[in-house]
Amino acid sequence: MSIANFQRFCEGSLEYAGLLLSEIAQYPLLPKVVKRILGFENDTETQLFLELFTTSQLSTAILDSDDNITPQWYIQPLERHIQRLQHVAIVMDGMGP
Hints:
- This protein is mainly alpha-helical.
- It is 64% helix and 0% strand.
- It has one domain (2-95).
- It has five helices and no strands.
- It is globular and about 45 Å long.
């Protein structure tokens, strides 16, 4: 459910997915690495912001990792990113058109 909330709030932006995956990995990930992790065929950096990730892609990237990823590795960063995106949505709605 949290992964679906994250995807909904960031509207599938690969930039936000990259920030989340970098935090989980505990080091910065290059855009082409983020795209590869999420299973995109075309890994050119110029198209990073044109493609959108799905909930399925992100959950597969996190939960089916070859590493020993335990829930404690991804739940806290995921919740923190969701809270940040919720705050942005509230502020932007308050600003009006």
